[in-house]
Amino acid sequence: MNAFDKLRSKGHRITNQRENILQKIKHHPQTVEQIHEELEDKVDLASVYRAVKLFVKNGVVREVNLNDGKKRYELIDEKNHHHHFVCNNCRSIKDVSSRLEDRMIEDFRMSTNLKIEDHSIQLFGLCQNCIDL
C-alpha cells in the first residue's frame, strides 16, 4: 500500500499541499525547513509541520536522526529498507543497505528474548568527493 492509499484508508484527504510535501521527502531525508524551502512558498511553514506530524502519526513518514540536532523526515518505503551514510565534511546523505544488517538483526533477535520493533543504523565518514579534495 502506498503512502496515499494508507492515508486515505485512515480517513485523511490527499490535498495538493500534502501531495507536494510527500513528493519532496520521497528521495532523501529532509528537515521541515528544507521541505518548505523546496516548495518555494507554495505551502506555509506551519502547514508543512502539521502535514509531517500527520504523516509520522499514520506511519507513512519516519523521523531520521543523523546526530546533528536536526529532525529529518523520509518517506517509509517498505520495499527498500535502508540506512544512511553522512559525510562528516560536506554533510551529504547517501542511502545504504546491506544484507549484513539483516543477519545481525536476526542473530540479535535469536540470542535475546527481546522483540525488535524498529532499528536504525547511521554511518559517518567522508564521501568520495571529500576524500578526493
Automatic annotation (TrEMBL):
InterPro entries: FUR, Fur_C, WH-like_DNA-bd_sf, WH_DNA-bd_sf. CDD domains: Fur_like. Belongs to the Fur family. Pfam families: FUR. Zn(2+) binds at C87, C90, C127, C130. The keyword Iron applies. PANTHER family: FERRIC UPTAKE REGULATION PROTEIN (PTHR33202:SF7), ZINC UPTAKE REGULATION PROTEIN (PTHR33202). Keywords: DNA-binding, Iron, Metal-binding, Repressor, Transcription, Transcription regulation, Zinc. GO terms for molecular function: DNA-binding transcription factor activity; transcription cis-regulatory region binding; zinc ion binding. GO terms for biological process: negative regulation of DNA-templated transcription; regulation of secondary metabolite biosynthetic process. This is Transcriptional repressor. The keyword DNA-binding applies. Binds 1 Mn(2+) or Fe(2+) ion per subunit. It comes from Candidatus Roizmanbacteria bacterium RIFCSPHIGHO2_02_FULL_38_11. Its cofactor is Mn(2+); Fe(2+); Zn(2+). The lineage of its organism: Bacteria, Candidatus Roizmaniibacteriota. Fe cation binds at H81, H119.
